[in-house]
């Protein structure tokens, strides 16, 4: 038996019911508004938001050398990198080697006073008397992603019990000095080896059991260089296009990471050998030899080096750095050329010389071949394409201040300029930001 259900619809109960309904309705409306506002501000989760850079005028005062907080957040997400068309690209989108130099008030990580290896260093521009400091207040900014500054603590933690080598010419040595200066802000580097003229050096960071070596090998292949006591060539360089330089080859197995480069030395007068027989030369008038062309010699040497690295059973991480252009104007290093600019170029204001363009094309072509072989043999090889970013920095060279106080006695003195190497600190420090991104953050 089912009882009849009775609904008590008295006026007072209706009033109470309406009151409850109104309260519920208002509550739902408020929740809907909050819900809408929340999701309208959170809907861009797949969009990388780039901070707007405020216009900064580079500081030139002496006090501005002390680094302050970076103008870009250090907690920005790191760029995921992989090889694409010979470049390092973020998911097919961000090439960290394509960008611009933008003002950065934070300045260098170290100074000429905080890094002891800069004592008597020809790239110590401030100590040598360079009067302007604006060149210190720029940073490299990739077009489509954020590039955090080098984190020395994180780098050293990552490299515990590891060994690095920089193999190449004097630009490679310039780069090593930059990295040692940055890392020494965390722990003082201990020089544990050097040869007589300090072209080959090795440092150790004891707390991390990390070693960092600089190996002199300007051609990367065997070369017999004849230099007199004054540093001038006493005879043509003899270059063996079919033999690796034993200086780095014999130590290669001991390195976990290796940065290799060459380039500028191939412009020098040279006699080329294969199978211990002269096969030609570069710029050897009166020798009755065939000039085989710089492009052929350079390509052969890179093929030999990269084939060895990508076919080796030793699985080191290889960073192949492209050659960097110089900025001599109104002459060359031997004919009064200078570099007096104090600001970076913008893209489109300068182009590569024919020679620099030829060398870079050969480098990227041979790297592409090596990359395929490396993938087959599980060798991790990457390209450090520094050419474009350095092309834009004519202001970063020592110029006459490769000499100590060159105008102290005569402000009109004729002084040979260095428009090839880089001031320390200076633009070359940004190279380490890219290495950090490629090796550690990725």
Q: From the alpha carbons, calculate the radius of gyration and give it in angstroms.
A: 29 Å
Count of separate DSSP helical elements: 8
Task: Tell me the CATH superfamily.
Answer: SGNH hydrolase
What is the structural class? alpha/beta
Return the CATH architecture: 3-Layer(aba) Sandwich
Outline: globular
Q: What is the share of helical residues? A: 25-40%
Strand order of the largest sheet: 7-8-9-6-12-15-16
Strand content: 15-25%
Instruction: Kindly give the count of domains.
Output: 1
Distance between the termini: 76 Å
Give the beta-strand count: 16
In short:
Belongs to the PC-esterase family. TBL subfamily. The chain is α/β, with parallel strands linked by helices.
Describe the structure.
It is a single chain. The protein has 442 residues and is an alpha/beta fold. It contains eight helices and 16 strands. It has a seven-stranded mixed sheet, sandwiched between helices. The longest helix has 32 residues, at 11-42. The radius of gyration is 29 Å and the shape is globular. The model is unreliable at 1-24 and 31-91 (pLDDT under 50).
Layout of strands and helices, then pairs:
Blueprint: H1 11-42, E1 82-84, E2 87-90, E3 94-95, E4 99-103, E5 138-142, H2 152-158, E6 163-168, H3 170-183, E7 190-194, E8 201-205, E9 210-216, E10 221-224, E11 237-244, H4 246-249, E12 257-260, E13 270-274, E14 277-282, H5 294-311, E15 317-321, H6 354-377, E16 380-384, H7 387-391, H8 430-441
Parallel strand pairs: 6-9, 6-12, 11-13, 12-15, 15-16
Antiparallel strand pairs: 1-2, 2-3, 4-5, 7-8, 8-9, 10-11, 13-14
